[in-house]
Amino acid sequence: MEVVITEDVDAVAGRAADIVVALLRSRPGAVLGVATGSTPLPTYLELGRRVAAGEVSFERCRAFLLDEYIGLPPDHPECYANVVRRRFADVVGLPPHHVAGPDVWAPDLSAACAAYEDAIVSAGGIDLQLLGIGADGHIGFNEPGSSLASLTRPTTLTSVTRGANAHRFGSIDDVPRHAVTQGVATIGRARHVLLLATGAHKSSIVAAAVEGPITAMVPASALQLHPHVTVVVDEAAASRLSLADYYREIEAAGPAWRPA
Ligand code: F6R
Predict the structure, then answer these.
(1) Residue of 67, 138, 155, 180 to mutate, ligand 1, most atoms within 8 A of C-beta
(2) Taking CA atoms, which of 50, 118, 231, 233 is between 20 and 30 Å from 43?
């Protein structure tokens, strides 16, 4: 696991954008996994700036949503398909038909989840999966207790997660109770996982995920088993990492062979 500690939110966005741009330059038709939430938004804006500057193009890229609420109408502004279109695809010029999400409106949800797994495999798998981390350690909507072998499936959101998203809906009562999420193992199939975290409120869970035991109680800790994970955090989110100085030394030494 490569842990990159940067100064602030803007530096996290810059570093994350560097990683996405490098991928797209070497592989213009790359497959991305995209997260919603607040954390990746500065990265998406930075990528939009780089597209505008002519540094990169998303025209041939494809993207798969990490998760989607169950129970919202398809035109609801908080539907993740709409959020990703507004906050990512439109910003970077990714054609809307290149973005896929699980069909949470299908009468047979299990079949829809299996079809989503198949669609990811048919696209050649995800090259780079962007992730945020929930205060309870979730990645996607894999809440504590999720099987670390789980694939795309319907899940029930914790009250912590619903509370964290209440500001987007006006009240916690309006936040859906269920979602379809890529599973922990689905995320683990991505060739490169890029986890972003900013702010002191993420510091304890970042430390638990990166340096704590691998446990279903902290689903993000399963990333410790993945061969290519980059965790980009700001100083505030890094403040409880016991090996922070070592991560900085690795970063400062900077050779291309440094472990990922
Ligand atoms: C988003 C998602 C969630 C968020 C997490 C952090 O698609 O699946 O796991 O990444 O809840 O959210 P923020 O970034 O708002 O703190």
Answers:
(1) 138
(2) 118
42 to each of 74, 119, 139, how far by Cα in Å? 25, 28, 19
Ligand 1 pocket, residue 138 CB under 6 Å = yes
Write down the catalytic residue from 98, 143, 192, 234.
143
pTM for this entry: 0.97
Quote the tokens at residue 166.
């209440």
Phi and psi of 69, rounded to 5°? -65, 150
